[in-house]
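User: Before I run my own analysis I want an independent prediction to cross-check against. Here's the chain; please return only the structure tokens and, at the end, one sentence I can use as a sanity check.
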Amino acid sequence: MRISLPSLSEHFNQGLQPVYHFFGAETLLLEEAVDLFRVQATEAGYLERLRFTSETGFDWNQITDHMQSVSIFAEKKVIELRIPSGKPGDAGAKALIFYMSMQKNADTILVIISGEIDKRAQNTKWFKAVEGSGVVVECPAINVAKLPEWIAGRMTRKGLSFDRDVAERLAYFVEGNLLAAAQEINLLTLLYPDRRISVELMEKVIADHARFDVYGFVNACLSGATNRCIRILQSLKREQVEPIVILWALSRDTRTLCNLLIASAQGENPQSLFQKHGVWGARSRLITGAMRRLTLSQCLNLLRRLGRIDLMVKGRASFQRENIWEEIESVALGLCGLRVS
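Assistant: Structure tokens:
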């Protein structure tokens, strides 16, 4: 059975199940969901907790042995199994499938905790076995479009009163860092529990905790969001991300654009080639938008410029601008659709 994260509290009111699987890309939400389960388990008398982490060489027999052990003197127990990679491997998959087929011990609850699991992995036998025998709860990442709504909801649950624009503005400062968003909301709760929060008041106490990665930067370029693109690049520069990594990501997607535009010019359907080039989900919309905005000539020129910048990084060509970051910015703006000389 799969339930949504917001309905977790309501589910616990109906009693605990023998198996839970918490997974997802957002660490904060994942840990908060597990903490909520622990509170419920403790109140229900599950006072013993055993913890295991699936690593190379992990003995899966430990799990089945503990799950099957029964003693009239033993306390109710929770067995937490962390699978950081989200992939238990062949031995782990067999062990989980085997356990899910067994009759469960009412005094023991198995809790599986893992990171993000893609759609393909969610169709594996072990995942389906867990989903069929217990409760699966996904803790997905909060994207930039939904972040203000998430912030507003959390501030409301904390009892804060705030102006309409506060959530939007706070989202700007903490984008890409949900933990920072939670911490800043906690800070506002401590400082102003009985005062209405305005944008001006919030900005006095909120530091810029926005955190980005290379992929978010390239996505901003593909979407044509110029200001966002520059902002993320500046953040990457402050965090001392290696320029060669940024160049690799830009080159990869620019090359993909070139291949798709060539296929389109030859009468082929670019959509049919998305899978071949690893373009999935939301990225297909970004790539499609970039294909409408850019010509093949523009993309080929950007690819040549990226090749030259790569030579600059390796000391085999001279800079045309002040430094490597300005070189990268010029290509990024070109990918956004601006004409940069």
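Sanity check: Residues 147-205 form a domain with the Helicase, Ruva Protein; domain 3 fold (CATH 1.10.8.60).
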